[in-house]
Amino acid sequence: MNADEWFEIHQCRGEGESIKGIAQRLGISRNTVRRALAMSEQPNDHRRLKGSVADEADARIRDLLQRSPSISIAEIGRCIMWSHSRTLLVRKVNQIKSEMTTVPFDPPSIGTGLPQHPTSFVGRHHELREIRRLLGDHRLVSVVGPGGIGKTRLVVRAAEEYRRAFADGIRFVELASLRSESLVSQAIADRLGLETRDGPNNSADDILVEYLRNRRMLLILDNCEHLVDGVAALVSRLTEETRNLRILTTSREYLAIPGEYVFHLPPLSIDGGKESGAVELFANRAESVLSGFELSDSNVDAVRRICQRLDGLPLAIELACTRLNVLSVEDLAERLDRRLSMLTVSARGRTPRHRSLQATIDWSYELCSETERILWCHTSVFADSFDIGMAVAVCSDDALSEDEIMEAVAALVAKSVVVREISDNGVRFRLLESIREYGWGKLTIPERRHMNERLLEYCARIVEESTTSWYGPEQLTKATAVSINRGNIRAALHSVMNTPTDPALVELAADTLGSSRFLWACGISVREHRMWLTQALDLPGVSRTARGRILTVLALVQTLQGDRDAADFTLRRARELAGDREDPVTRSFAVHIAGLRDFFAGRADSGMAYLDEAERGYQLHGCDPELVSMLQVHRGMLLCSTQDVSGAADAFSRVFTSTDEIGELWFHSYATYGLGHVALLENDPDTAAQRALEALRYQREFADPIGKTVMADLLGWALAEQGHGARAAVVLGAASSMWGSIGRQLYGADHWNTLRARAVDTARHHVGGSAFDAAWARGQAMTAPELLAYIFDEDCAKHDHPAPDRSYSAHATARADASQLDLLSPREREVAELVAQGLTNKQIAGRLVLSSRTVEGHVEHLLRKLCLSRRTEVPRALFAT
Known about the structure:
single chain, 5-stranded parallel β-sheet, two-stranded antiparallel ribbon, 44 helices, mainly alpha
């Protein structure tokens, strides 16, 4: 037993935990707990916590089990010369057997979003254990501390270590790039992949509550201090209206709401010599700057002095270490002493930690060249990450050339001012929030206004390039550029909406939003796209032409949301502004959207009349080719609803051929879907399923909730006709949830309702009522990324975008219907396997780090899904196939 174990045992006892409970929580024997409680003072043993004595025998036990799986507990004990509690050995052997026989499960998800840090995590072992304890006892934990103290790094590390405790995964939401509290809920919904659950009649808060209500998930909200009121309101509602959700926030200011446990993150420890967290961090970062650096008796005192002067702040220590390429440790310590002494006099109103960080950042700033200082300040305009091209476009001026910017970025990365990140989208850079705030504070008001203008101009260009490239081979590349720069686009639009003082910038924002018909398919959600369009209409001095175009795009977005009354009013305004001569293409587009609205409402005759009128207008006045393809897709869908199979096939084939020739993907996915719909009407479900899958493979690259929903619907119909009842039920349940959450069924014609009802009846007939209901419920709980992962039989956090011509996996479908086991969620399957091993609910809860009540719920659900009445029947059901 070491000092850390002694401390944790006494802390647990002080909270009223029983000896048995302490042993289970810490994974040690009860005798060890009793010995610790009998000791009034902690042992003089400060080694790092290593766990129970059983952990030391882990490797030898695994080796024995691999060589002889049937070996007895007694034989294992003799082989490893076990002299401790037999109960502890039994628990350890059972744990290892479970790990060796159970495939580790990583829940299908859209990825945790946890940031990948380029440097290693150092120290904070006690804090990690404390956060784990707090998350077990409290549903809301706020990690609070000043900038640069390491809040984000700590919670990310905690999430990585404890994620198996959360059956529905972990989601990390970075809020530093937001400038408006109204977007907090939307940003979380985006991270959760809930674009298909948007709707006009329910708020983003409602969507989050409904999705998270029964999920056992850890939601991390990072950098909340500038949005504290909005975050507090949302989190308060989430904790009240969900059951198993855990929320971990980082902020410089706590939320001050009921149920919040505030964990004040202390600086890194300095006491303890070479083993202290601060000294360990210094040594780690110093070695990366100065190859071969090692702590020694000759320099450890100077390192400790540096860490003390910097109050153990991780960011300050990292910045200080960058100077070791030109200074010795002793020189660095002396210079810091002088700087901090001067700052203490000049900044008496600040806390010591604030002064330490301020002094370190000041020093880093002063040691930069003039070019590096200018770039530091200019790049602080970015609310999110940026690449070299963006830095050149936004930050270059007479004082900064392109070559100078590239050199300065490299120098700032070397000085730890700028963080370099590598992702699927290439190399990007970002500033830590404390660094960004410092740079922004160095700019004057006119300079800030100028940088905001430059950012708006650049972001407008990104959106415009996506618009002009929408019908061509660069479509996906340009759409991705919008998606990865969403935070910067938000910041740019927010700046002009809040201070619309420059007529040129107002006109730029209005023209950009008025021309971007498909922004909602590029990572900006339908709800958010509507918000920006609505705000743009309130900008002063917007021209009549721009206002008319904004209104037509707004009408499209409202129609896609199913908000037909609002769309009808918006279309009347748009047609009045566009007129017959002033902007005939915009007027034709408004007529086009009127046809789409009537089609969605089930009024096929008037819908077709509007589409015919719009097509004549497009032909007469000329228009962008994407409008023609868009109209043909809508015409094909409408003709399908009227059973004009030949006409629908012709409309879809035109789009399919023209888009295939130029390498366009988005319209091509709709044309592919349309041909699949035609195949279903011609009683060819095999072709229909193949086309639906091809369309979904294209669609997964875009953030288009409508496309994913209609294509999932088609796939569900086809699977039901093929006889894959359980799989069809899951897909149909997911599609139903998507439609219902949008607000209204977009395709209200009897044709769509008939196809859906027939598919539901067919699938239910194939698998039976109870199994169908369970599969349907499983689908309804899925997000779009989770559904795609299920459809393509993969983990969507790791998918590699299979080629569009890859055929549907018959093996996956056959396996899905081979047994009702596939109706179990991954966590339920894991619980079922432990039930089959004879473990009690309490033992399962201890093994999986769950509450006993949660395990009871899982057992009830799996028994119902497997149509079993007793848990003793689980082994036969589990291993029969």
